[in-house]
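TEACHING EXERCISE
Course module: macromolecular assemblies
Task: Read the component lines below, then compare them to the predicted structure of the full complex.
Student: A.B.
Group: 4
Components provided:
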Amino acid sequence: MSDVGIKDVAARAGVSPGTVSNVLNRPEKVSPATRAKVEAAVRELGFVRHGSASTLRAGHSKTIGLSVIDIGNPFFTDVTAGVEEVASDLGYAVILSNSAGSRAKEERNLLVLAEQRVRGVLITPSDEDPERLDRLRARGIAVVLVDHPAHCPDQCSVAVNDIGGGMTAVRHLMGTGAKSIVYVTGPLTIRQCLDRRAGAERAYGRPLRVIEMGAMTPRAGQQAAEKLLSEGDLPDAVFCANDLLALGLLRGLTHAGVRVPHDVALIGYDDIDFAAASAVSLTSIRQPTHQLGRVATELLLDECDNPATHAHQQIMFQPELVVRESTR
Amino acid sequence: MSDVGIKDVAARAGVSPGTVSNVLNRPEKVSPATRAKVEAAVRELGFVRHGSASTLRAGHSKTIGLSVIDIGNPFFTDVTAGVEEVASDLGYAVILSNSAGSRAKEERNLLVLAEQRVRGVLITPSDEDPERLDRLRARGIAVVLVDHPAHCPDQCSVAVNDIGGGMTAVRHLMGTGAKSIVYVTGPLTIRQCLDRRAGAERAYGRPLRVIEMGAMTPRAGQQAAEKLLSEGDLPDAVFCANDLLALGLLRGLTHAGVRVPHDVALIGYDDIDFAAASAVSLTSIRQPTHQLGRVATELLLDECDNPATHAHQQIMFQPELVVRESTR
DNA sequence: GGACAAATTTGAAACGTTTTTCCGGACCGG
DNA sequence: CCGGTCCGGAAAAACGTTTCAAATTTGTCC
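Instructor-supplied answer key:
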């Protein structure tokens, strides 16, 4: 039942295998009459093309790889959803790999992708080292950087302006009258955290008081609240490097009897779904996550399907302020 | 640079292609000396096996498919993370497809998976119709049902006891002294929502007052709060079919000045990360989501790699009550 | 009606592995 | 020292497509 090949279809339709292949791949090259015959045979026999054979002979596959840093983070989930949408529409399969913050795992995953002969790879690199990616590209696998600006103009990238986002956040806080502002962040080895701080300080005009946590989770946010409270003098406002931190912080402050936004204003980053749903809804910097995934995939597939006309682009989206209760 | 094949390696190592293949696939069949030579050649030439050629000849691939209903839902995200972990460990690639609740899209995705000749498929079916899956299995593609009990004993499935979970939830609420309880749910066409209600009513001893929403999102939860408030008499407790609904409801109630848990106790379902982080932390029914993904993948790969000894299993996990502030 | 061009279709040779059969030599006991 | 066994490695035949040149049919124009 399973082993219906192109030859069986050919026999059934009374044509040669080559013609069947043409019907499958260049329908316009074959006369309507035979095309109909072949399509009927395909349907009757339940023929399904053998992707591997096709890939082997044609030299390229219908799959792309997606390598993210943390599939559990709603940010990446949204990106992934966007990627899957576009890829699926164009008949591409998406091979998902999660580097889980481990450089070694990322490396292993890229090897698997190379073995699968993916057409291209979408990746949010876990560090700045471009060497692994250059190796992929040397293999003829297109690479598009996601949420990371390209380091050179010979490749595509899709990112969001984190410096601008940081500026917007702090400008908004100052607009509500905040004088003293604290920046609560994840590891400052992460480019996003760094850039957001840089933007924030540019708007602030001088260095910010920084609380750096080891992770960017609700739990870490709650710990940050304790730290903030134990340090004594409360700031007028807090800028968190992402919403998970902000939600945890919000909970920690509320518990200690600190009222948000009355005592302390609070702004997050990412505008994940839960930002609007928390007890005090969270002002945040919205990133076009879904769009990020979609555009990155479109760029990648354009590079694959139209290598001749493809022009590499480094796209930078602008984030957007979403004002809610936590800063009102 | 890219096109180093097994022959090139063979030439370099001074052996035949067949021997290289043996080193790659059955290292124990080849003498240590030649194995070392071949491995050196592989390293020097940067050889990467051509997965498609391998699949074509060997008749089976190193990929599995994962078809989920909504990649945006933290529940599925956790499952996906578990799947990816196990698959990646065993050298399998995961092709992700998101049916987004659409039967047609699910069907298209399954076709793509069939073309890719995946070894097996993990699927949370979007409806009860087993026909599509039987077709896959007729093709020799193993299928494991995720978060859905198998309808017949000739296949594997991994699910969580939703009836038991519903019972646990309502028993807990009654234990805190609640007399009147409302069930806030998503569409009752969804098996999970139905089962949870069934369990809840079994514990309650009579039909529950039900508020059925069109979606299972925070927004829908907030609308449910409005509905609840407009209907006048507040219950002692509310059981929500998932945490997203519960978080939205919590926000809606809090806004209206209703105190949780003092005026109304509240329990959710899933125990997503944000349940612990909300302003009033949420009591919930925890499902072993990550485990669900892991075990399902282990079953699938066992079925693929040891077809002889494999015994189909229908695994049913028990959910677990996590008590937090919203019911204290 | 014939000649030439265009449009279709054919047939066979790849693509890079795995697998199976087969062969030469090393090793063993008698 | 001989015959039989084993073991490691070689050679060649698949696997199911796509592709390309060649062959055939169809169509056009005088």
